[in-house]
């Protein structure tokens, strides 16, 4: 049996697989997992190819049988010649790279000593090895001049450049993979596009209980300094993601909103801070001071022995001194 058709069928199967995979791929998963019917398409392609191979094989056989004896002989000769010269280029290149003498010519390079019948051949070094060796010499010379004479860069610089590059790539990646944020990594978004997206999420989902302005209704006022569940982007993100206290009406939104959307609406909520909307609900909860805020931004002034004024980012907030 000829091996040609079998090899061609295998190649078609692999190529078909790769082409479908390449054209159809959308994400991390293989298209064949997402669209299992593609296996059927690939199967049909392979079956058609096998059928075509069988037809061509049969046709060749019939044509061969109709040849006259001398033509048949010529065909056989040409076929044998083509077969012998298959992969000739590879075989020749391999021989050149190894550079060994064929067995018939070994007599020319045999050394004239003989150890218990073991003889030694004086083959040349294989050309692949010799050229590889020359390449290392050239490499060493260039390396020496570049790094020892002209001090191009050293390991520390190389490391720092790699870290800087990696940071840029991480930033890029974060931009495309916004949904990686969670409560530990979320940061206040200030881009207008993010805040606008947050605004429409808020108006669509939250305004019913918090009012469009954030002034509060069923839910608390979101624009004042007081927070029941903690202010700041991390706490607000957590409240939106996990919900409020049981039975209060604030559900967990993590199954309805993507992490990026929760970050947007959380940032939008914080952007409402200090907007003093009309008909605002009474403050609930505690004044929230950001423990990570730079100290210069929080100024504490004693008004008298019972009251202090805390100035956060130029906004005064007055509260009672709580005695321990
Ligand atoms: C069904 C009414 C309702 C909806 C809808 C609702 N909330 Fe609330 N929200 C509440 C209530 C009630 C609370 C108070 C929870 C508590 O006391 O534990 C609250 C609390 C909060 C808090 C914490 C306030 C604080 O003082 O700590 C934030 C932030 C918040 N909601 C944001 C949102 C956002 C953003 C949405 C929309 C995605 C939303 N809420 C939708 C009712 C709602």
From TrEMBL:
Residues 193-273 form the Cytochrome c domain. GO terms for molecular function: electron transfer activity; heme binding; metal ion binding. SUPFAM superfamilies: Cytochrome c (SSF46626). Keywords: Coiled coil, Heme, Iron, Membrane, Metal-binding, Transmembrane, Transmembrane helix. Gene3D superfamilies: 6.10.280.130, Cytochrome c-like domain. It holds the Pfam family FixP_N. The chain crosses the membrane at residues 6-25, 37-59, 128-145. Residues 156-183 form a coiled coil. This is Cytochrome C oxidase subunit III. It comes from Nonlabens spongiae. The lineage of its organism: Bacteria, Pseudomonadati, Bacteroidota, Flavobacteriia, Flavobacteriales.
